[in-house]
């Protein structure tokens, strides 16, 4: 809510709205759940790594179709009723999604992108029909770090 953060947000929003004309692509990486809702609303793809803050979940639910519907696109739903933490399978979509996020391992993330093409279907007349992710999300594996130190914190000797 500071003047500086509003200036940054408005500049990013302007650039995002004109990105096709400017030939720009914007990537925002944050660890702060109070990111501007307007920025989340204009995001075409959101990658969510493990978090434990309920504030983040509330933010995501308000702005991501896949977080509101909470439909996982792989076979992880098969065991959601038998999760040992007792959060999933009770009909509460928010608790189920939160359990999935909290239990993500290093290098795993959930991908939300309504217009992402994630599959093919054989339609009528053997035509191939592309399937969009829509209101679902996809569990993905992010590549290992390629840095010399492997991502380890440098410690003083």
Terminal residue distance: 41 Å
Shape: globular
Low-confidence stretches: 74-91
The structural class is: alpha+beta
- Give average pLDDT, whole number: 77
Number of strands: 6
Give the topology string: H per helix, E per strand: HHHEHHEHEEEE
Count of helical stretches: 6
Beta-strand residue fraction: 15-25%
Structure description:
The protein is α+β, with helices and mostly antiparallel strands and 157 residues long. The protein has six helices and six strands, in the order αααβααβαββββ. It has helices at residues 3-17, 19-22, 37-41, 54-63, 65-69, 93-102, and strands spanning 46-48, 71-72, 108-112, 117-122, 128-132, 136-141. Strands 1-3-6-2 form a four-stranded mixed β-sheet. The longest helix is centred in the N-terminal third of the chain and has 15 residues, at 3-17. It is globular. The N and C termini lie far apart (41 Å). The relative contact order is 0.14.
